[in-house]
Write a structure and sequence with these properties.
homodimer, 213 residues, Rossmann fold, 7-stranded mixed beta sheet, two-stranded antiparallel ribbon, 9 helices, 45% helix, DNA-binding
Chain lengths: 213, 213
Amino acid sequence: MTKPRPKISKATVTRLAFYLRELQQMQRSGLANIQSKAIAERLGLNDSQVRRDISCLGTVGQRGVGYRVQELIESIQRVLGTDRTWNVILVGVGNLGRALSGYRGFEQQGFHLVGAFDSDSKKIGTSIGSLEIQRLDDLSSFCQSHQIDLAILAVPADAAQGVVREIENAGIPGILNFAPIAVQATSKRTIIQEVDLAIELQRLAFGVVPKAQ
Amino acid sequence: MTKPRPKISKATVTRLAFYLRELQQMQRSGLANIQSKAIAERLGLNDSQVRRDISCLGTVGQRGVGYRVQELIESIQRVLGTDRTWNVILVGVGNLGRALSGYRGFEQQGFHLVGAFDSDSKKIGTSIGSLEIQRLDDLSSFCQSHQIDLAILAVPADAAQGVVREIENAGIPGILNFAPIAVQATSKRTIIQEVDLAIELQRLAFGVVPKAQ
DNA sequence: TAGATTGTTAATCGATTAACAATC
DNA sequence: TAGATTGTTAATCGATTAACAATC
């Protein structure tokens, strides 16, 4: 008789992750309770929206008082799935990949980097952080001996589609794609999340331009 | 008698940037014409939506034929504001900042990194790529002698809000914020675009979880 | 209790999509 | 011309917000 998970839109998921980030900050500074209005103000949102998003969690606040920070953190993590550790591999150890591998924020949210792969034979065997870079060809066998949840893809555009197939064949269900090209999954079950830092700058540029007119 | 710029939603802006990325790929492979249906398929969108987004550009296609790739590229860049070079500075040269500074994708889309700043005296004077890291205190004077359009903020969470004020005081109208905390602009004219790589992984994790049930 | 804030409904707002006349 | 694809309207769909009863 588990309550069916309510349908949560992608927009809500993204906001929940932002709430989580703020709540973690608040917790670090010793705050135990918080109101929807305060969360909304910090993030520039409407307080109705915050309450509605939170209502998807199942967790409830206390009328007249607000929410318990610790409780909210835990229930957001439960819904996002980050109440456990996720094993992640990095595919493509170029400039960006190397940077991503050292990014602390991943580990802090429970994403544990357990392998790094590249196709450049000059890189194989060299180390990146505490990991040794492995041949892309060894991806599949590595995944048979390790339970891998997600892959971070940071290869050049023209290699991306081929590597996606290898990642899928290795049975990894989610790909964070930094390659600057749209890639297609073969299986409908594979989830691909696009990230493009240059596109983020372009979105910002668009916001700035009208002011210059 | 300039035509008033049509209202373009943020969702449309983001998609236009993705169209641009694909169109640039297509152009590299020698494609001169493209149809809304083909763009939509590549990106997993509806072709009506693609045509509607493109109609915001002013540029028109040819019925029965499609759009000219070169023309679309130029008009998307014009609307996003990337038909010119943007001068960008990096504030915060930690692990992530260092990585971002070497990222080729920025330069390719017309974002030119012209300065790097940090508050750690041990880093001042050392180089990052072709740039010499400057004191954060020198940000303001640097901006007086250089026309800076955007700042990439990659400092720790607890320093972020203070640095945002300095960036605003230096007259920079747009900030790409990688610091894992919500920051407030003092001026309403300042545009802040949030990017959080850990949040992208969380969004992906949420997408993957239901499959495991 | 009185004051405050949640949880939720109903109204509003905006974005997506189907459909098709226009036209290359 | 016949076939194809755009540009745009109208319908649908979904997300946001205002408002307020419930209740701590």
